[in-house]
Amino acid sequence: MTVSMLGGLLMSALLLWTPLALAALGGLLHRVSGVVNIGLEGQMLTGALVGAVVSGATGDWALGVLAAGAAGGLIGLLMSLCITRLGANEIIAGLGFTIVLSGLIGYLLRSVFDVSGTLRVAGLDPLPRILGLDPLFWLTIIFVPLIGWSLRNTVAGLRLRATGDGFDAANALGLPANGIRDIAGTLAGVFAGIAGSHLVLGQVGLFNENMVAGRGFIALAAFYFGRARPLPTALACLLFAVFDAAQARLQTAGVPAQLIQTLPYVVVIAVLTATAVRGVRGRVRRAG
Q1: Which stretches are annotated as coiled coil (predicted)?
Q2: How far apart are CA 31 and CA 153, in angstroms?
Q3: pTM to 2 decimal places
Q4: Please, which of 28, 48, 244, 245 could form a disulfide with 223 given CB 3.0 to 4.6 Å?
């Protein structure tokens, strides 16, 4: 592989890394509060559609990103309220929201926009480039150390960790544990919504109802692999992004497309298996 090919692979990986890392960082915050967010996929899809429509309507990529974050945050809050106030199982709630949102968006595409599957928005304003990469990439680079520092050194971060480590103990100390989890769920939705907008405004320039393509679940695997720590989570996302970027190059080398498409999911399974084995070994050492 030549230097130019490696450079192209790296740039593609960094482009693909941005939405994965954003969604994973949001899921990480929710996980630290004690809730596993399985709804990232649906929140990303919602953000992608809203970002595309608002960017096209206003001609402003920034408004599209903000609207996508707001839409994702609203979905995140609603899902969190179902878990914290109605006692819904977090796995079932996350999957349920994802399925409902996917069906609703498919219905809207056909009934409102009169298209099937793919929506091309006139006037869509793509993300600009700063030093060859878009603003959301640089924002994500800032978020990684900022979130890590905040979780360790701020009152909000310590309260979030306390809620996740011991929900009942946090309540007993007077912390609004359910409210903290709702805030974390909302933030997770904001991050996922912005990640979805990046798929449209920073990558393909149109919306497709299948465009998220499992990235929400890959983000879930990434923050598990990173043990809910921002830097390892971001590096896990980079690993997934490299595999994703390598798909096109492997396809040109004659590798069957069906095999290539399974690579990200194989990596997810491998990561989750390695994480589980590592956890079992840790418990065995502590017990011994």
Answers
A1: none
A2: 18
A3: 0.90
A4: 28
Beta-carbon contacts of residue 130 (< 8 Å; ≥ 6 apart): 138
pLDDT tens sequence for the chain (288 residues): 566 667 778 888 999 999 999 999 999 999 999 999 999 999 999 999 999 999 999 999 999 999 999 999 999 999 999 999 999 999 999 999 999 999 999 999 999 999 988 999 988 999 999 988 999 999 999 999 999 999 999 999 999 999 999 999 999 989 999 999 999 999 999 999 999 999 999 999 999 999 998 899 899 989 888 888 999 999 999 988 988 887 766 666 666 666 666 766 676 677 667 767 777 777 777 776
Contact 215, 94 (CB under 8 A): no
CA 64 to chain centre: 17
| Helix (H), strand (E) at residue 268 | helix 257-287
Distance between CA atoms of residues 87 and 265, nearest Å: 31
Spell out the domain ranges in the chain: 3-126+133-287
Q: How many CB atoms lie within 10 A of CB 245?
A: 19
Locus of tokens 């096109």: 248
| Residue 269 CB coordination number (10 Å) | 12
For 166-173, the CB contacts below 8 A with 24+ separation are: 167/34
